[in-house]
């Protein structure tokens, strides 16, 4: 019990940890609002206010977040020309997303002209989608390489080799983290598409709610202290 509490404290001390918790509030309240809006209007309005407040507070938490893209490229530009290109494209899209998200937030809270909100939302969502596509491609390539390396280790080493077991364990742990990243990125891509090109499927409250929770909980898993 104490270990779980300690991990929760560490998790919530991170900006990403707080973001995933508030994102959970945001999309749970969206689903509750959709569920009760025709039967309990007062309750639906309260949950709608919670959803909006959570979304705006997340944007405030992300102030300056676009700079993490520069840091990611500086620390890990990629091991091959292909991965360097994918990293540049992915992080460039994410930087556009977070940068214009600042203006979207300011227009939503009334500091900037509210008419800018739609344009800022489109640019931000377009950059987000662009970046996620290349993050997903990179993770799939790395997972494929990991599977090939795992098969070689299993085929060429003794089953009781401690070194081989440790390498396989690391490959599998990395693959799980990348699967969580892919799930989160696909879910966020659906949410971004709802802003870029509104359509009945992506813009449905259930689609957005489930996508938001998948993204939040996959991020929760990735950021939870080991």
From TrEMBL:
<comment type="subunit">
    <text>Homooligomer. Interacts with ARC5 and FIS1B on peroxisomes.</text>
</comment>
<dbReference type="Pfam" id="PF05648">
    <property type="entry name" value="PEX11"/>
</dbReference>
<keyword id="KW-0962">Peroxisome biogenesis</keyword>
<keyword id="KW-1133">Transmembrane helix</keyword>
<feature type="transmembrane region" description="Helical">
    <location>
        <begin position="176"/>
        <end position="194"/>
    </location>
</feature>
<keyword id="KW-0472">Membrane</keyword>
<dbReference type="GO" id="GO:0016559">
    <property type="term" value="P:peroxisome fission"/>
</dbReference>
<comment type="similarity">
    <text>Belongs to the peroxin-11 family.</text>
</comment>
<dbReference type="InterPro" id="IPR008733">
    <property type="entry name" value="PEX11"/>
</dbReference>
<dbReference type="GO" id="GO:0005778">
    <property type="term" value="C:peroxisomal membrane"/>
</dbReference>
<dbReference type="GO" id="GO:0044375">
    <property type="term" value="P:regulation of peroxisome size"/>
</dbReference>
<feature type="transmembrane region" description="Helical">
    <location>
        <begin position="206"/>
        <end position="224"/>
    </location>
</feature>
<comment type="function">
    <text>Involved in peroxisomal proliferation. Promotes peroxisomal duplication, aggregation or elongation without fission.</text>
</comment>
<keyword id="KW-0175">Coiled coil</keyword>
<keyword id="KW-0576">Peroxisome</keyword>
<dbReference type="GO" id="GO:0042802">
    <property type="term" value="F:identical protein binding"/>
</dbReference>
<feature type="coiled-coil region">
    <location>
        <begin position="147"/>
        <end position="174"/>
    </location>
</feature>
<feature type="transmembrane region" description="Helical">
    <location>
        <begin position="83"/>
        <end position="100"/>
    </location>
</feature>
<keyword id="KW-0812">Transmembrane</keyword>
<feature type="transmembrane region" description="Helical">
    <location>
        <begin position="120"/>
        <end position="142"/>
    </location>
</feature>
<protein>
    <submittedName>
        <fullName>Peroxisomal membrane protein 11B-like</fullName>
    </submittedName>
</protein>
